[in-house]
Every structure is written in C-alpha cells, then in structure tokens.
Amino acid sequence: MSSLSLIRVKIYKTVARQLHGVVPCWVCGGHVAFADATLEHIQPQSEGGSGHQDNLAISHDACNHQRHAKAPVV
Ligand SMILES: [Zn+2]
Question: Is residue 11 situated within a structural domain?
Fold first, then answer.
C-alpha cells in the first residue's frame, strides 16, 4: 500500500467523522462510497500543488477522471 493510499484512508475517515458518515465529492458534491473514493489535488501538481493533506480532497473515481480527461462538452 502506497503512502497516498494511507492518506486517502486517513482523509476519508476524518471527513466521515466530521460530517457524521457523509463524505462529499470535491467535484460534484455527492456522497462518495469508500470503494469509489480517490484523492484529488485541489491545486494540480503540475501547477505546483503539494501532495500535502491540505491540498488533497476526496472525489469519486469517475469525477476525478472526468475532470482530467477534458471530455468534449455535450
Ligand atoms: Zn463526484
């Protein structure tokens, strides 16, 4: 297990405890099940964002990919 995975678990559990079991997606705002949870860099690493916990947020796996895929607007 990578250190990022450990941070993901830590952040997920922290948010779930603070919000009584609800972990909102940083991208769409919906609840994220742990199985779907990925870590999103609030400020992209390509723009100098750090890998520190303060720059990381939980999002859906699908939302995370959508945000980076630059899919054409339908
Ligand atoms: Zn989402």
Answer: yes
